[in-house]
Specification:
Elements: H1 2-11, E1 15-21, E2 40-46, H2 59-64, E3 74-82, E4 91-100, E5 106-107, E6 111-114, H3 127-135, H4 149-165, H5 170-173
Antiparallel strand pairs: 1-2, 2-3, 3-4, 4-5, 4-6
Amino acid sequence: AGLAAASPMINGGVVFSYKCSTCEGRYCRRDLPTNDDMAFAYMQSGSFGNMTQADDLGLLASVISRGAILPGILSGAFTLEEMPGSEDGSLWKRTCFWGLGSCAWQEFGSYDLTKIVDEHGEPVQPHYDEFIEYMGEVPLMIWTGWADEQAKKVVADRIEAFVQNGTLPEFMSALRPGAQSV
């Protein structure tokens, strides 16, 4: 199910946006000042970098079930909530709520997120060491950003070419056998 769930995000150039506010959720840190407008966020996604039209998160159920759940039946609402014990934004609850029609009320599939590297790519302790110990000998890659602005521009240009003419960037062609690359 993991690959099936990730496939639309890989192939569709999904962008995520967050509407941050003070805590509105059930998992948020109650010890934060009430004016902390970064303790909670609703998440929206858009395909191919289009942030002007939010994707219907309920469609993920149809994708994951390979069509067993008909599109438009379920709705979804996802949030991020800073959890108790979090220091400098290190612990978050990523909630997943589902429902029929337009009311997403049933929590299912939520999980915890732990920051293991900071904005400079430096380890956040003790979480980083705990993660490395837990993973053991499994080869790992951690994305900490672009090497430089030129590397970022190359990928952005390739994705823009896809948006404009439907030609897949080379790094995506392996995901869709037979597809033409730029």
